[in-house]
Design goal:
Helices cover 67% and strands 9% of the residues. It has helices spanning 2-6, 15-36, 40-51, 57-64, 68-80, 102-111, 114-122, 129-149, and strands spanning 54-56, 84-88, 96-100. The chain has a 3-stranded antiparallel β-sheet with strand order 1-3-2. A hairpin with a 7-residue loop joins β2 (84-88) and β3.
């Protein structure tokens, strides 16, 4: 019976360290993103558009593993901040195309230092760069597995 109960102990869960690490990592981003007056989800959208300047809402949602009902309010707030522009596709009126505004594009140069600052915050004597790299690869595999089941 105690073995069964142990499966409910917090320290035996995979989900908790993933949740806590995600929350703490996002917290580390906060001061850098506050300088840009954006949230972490807005930063994710911007990173997609800095790499792929024109994306549909569905394409962004697939990349971020978000449904359009979650993504649409986020995009509306970004449009109100003049970071993006949303327009109906000329090829398919059901599809909404998202592009960067001048302001959204110019934030890219301001954000260039963020990945290095975040990587630096992960540095510690107890974990090597290689371990972090392997961990990211494992997380990518796990994301693929989980995304296929949802």
């Amino acid at each position: 019976m105690s073995d069964n109960l142990a499966s409910l102990y917090l320290e035996n869960q995979l989900c908790f360290p993933l949740y806590a690490a995600s929350r703490l990592t996002t917290k580390i981003y906060t001061p850098f993103l506050n300088e840009l007056d954006i949230t972490y989800p807005q930063y994710l959208v911007l990173m997609i558009l800095w790499q792929h300047p024109e994306q549909t809402v569905n394409e962004i949602g697939k990349k971020l593993l978000l449904e359009s009902n979650t993504l649409t309010p986020l995009l509306k707030r970004m449009e109100q901040k003049d970071l993006i522009q949303r327009t109906r596709s000329k090829n398919d009126e059901r599809s909404v195309v998202v592009t960067l505004t001048e302001k959204g594009f110019s934030m890219r140069s301001q954000a260039l230092s963020i990945p290095q600052k975040i990587a630096k915050s992960f540095q510690d004597e107890s974990i090597s760069k290689e371990e972090v790299s392997v961990f990211k690869g494992t997380l990518d595999k796990l994301l693929g597995i989980l995304a296929s089941k949802v």
